[in-house]
Amino acid sequence: MNLIYSLIFVIGLALVFTKSIKKNNHIYYSIATIIAISTIGYEILRMTSDMKLYGLISYFEKASIKGIFSIAFFVLVMFAGALNTKWSITRKLLNIRAELAIIASILMLPHGIIYLVRFIIYSIPKAFAQKPFPITYLSFIVIGIIAFILMIPLFITSFKKVRRKMKATQWKKLQRWSYLFYFLAYIHVLLILLNGKSMDWLKLSTYTIIFGSYAVLKLSKVYMSKRLKASKVTSLA
């Protein structure tokens, strides 16, 4: 499965090249941008001509346009904030969390832009002409668009130059919207699977385990943090 392969690659990249990503982040942003632009360029050609890719590069392009590479990076961003900070793997991920979020956002641009264009040009006329009305189809499109719009300010404010111009409380308040973004991303995928001709149980299980595990870990971490604060207050009283 493409997501599993992408996760293995991204985890290895993040853990082996942590210092390089931190120090030379502009190089990684450039690589992500080249992938994004190349994907958008090919998809435009595919919509306007009969151009097709074959072999390994075809699988690579499909993973890019479907946002799978992006999701793999976002998964690391998610778990960096949910895992125990005492673990060395967590400290490594937290050190480059902003960089991983920026890379993930850049890689998500082709998915958001191309599918939005397809929706406006092709899907809207077909949807209103179709009977019965495709509620599930339009639902995952609308949720995807909302998630994509929500990602933009999170993406922009992940850059240090932008973050420094904001108050700490303002930045933290804005970044809390990332939880809604993660939730909408999962619902988007879920509705896509429900809209298919047959349910892909492997994909459903994979995404549910990943996002479900994150939710449990994050809620547990928040709960334990509140309990620790409460115990400190009690001891001082």
UniProtKB/TrEMBL annotation:
GO terms for cellular component: plasma membrane. Pfam families: Ferric_reduct. Its main location: membrane. It is found in: Membrane. One of its GO terms (molecular function) is FMN binding. InterPro entries: Fe3_Rdtase_TM_dom (IPR013130), MsrQ-like (IPR022837). Keywords: Iron, Membrane, Transmembrane, Transmembrane helix, Transport. Residues 67-185 form the Ferric oxidoreductase domain. This is DMSO/TMAO reductase YedYZ, heme-binding membrane subunit. It comes from Clostridium frigidicarnis. The lineage of its organism: Bacteria, Bacillati, Bacillota, Clostridia, Eubacteriales.
